[in-house]
Amino acid sequence: MKLNDLVIIGVAATTVVSCAPSKKEYASYELYPVRTGSLTEMEYAPDATRFTLWSPTADEVRLMLYDAGDGGHAYETVAMSPAENGTWTAKVEQDLKGKFYTFNVKIDGKWLGDTPGINAQAVGVNGKRAAVIDMRETDPEGWAEDKRPPLASCRCDYLRSAPSRLLHRPVFGYPPQRQVPRDDGNGNGQPR
Fold this sequence. Notes:
It is a single chain. This protein has helices spanning 3-19, 162-166, and strands at residues 42-43, 49-54, 60-66, 76-79, 81-82, 87-92, 100-107, 110-115, 130-131. With 192 residues, the chain is α+β, with helices and mostly antiparallel strands. The strands form two sheets. Strands 3, 4, 7, 8 and 9 form a five-stranded antiparallel β-sheet that branches. Strands 1-2-6-5 form a four-stranded antiparallel β-sheet, with no helix packed on it.
């Protein structure tokens, strides 16, 4: 090879290496990026569906689209793009209602397999694939006008502040003055 050929090969190799995305390493969990905003991973609309996955250590992420919630193979694979704070995004410009999806994440050069994601709103058979649904269509008739019953008729004052109290009670719903029955050894739950 001539010197000019080696220089051209060297420049081409340097360009390819410098354009490759660099893998981010984190020295501790405190340094991981924190995802802010909505944790919704699938936002359906008839004209386009947006997908978001938080995976800050991923090298690549693929979105796999399926016709059914179980069996068969993906009919389309969409490469997701890295975004801010470790999120990956993709937009599919077609009506996907009734279809199913999974994410496949590559970390340290290994594809980890399909997952519906931890924020899936609906899943197919055995939860292996997430479903693309219009959440507004799942509301029963009159849902927007639905009101919870008032707590004023409750005979226990401690329930009026239930959200704050229940977090601090060892047994949910017991008032402070009531003792929790202990088993006397006969299995009938009577106090000793």
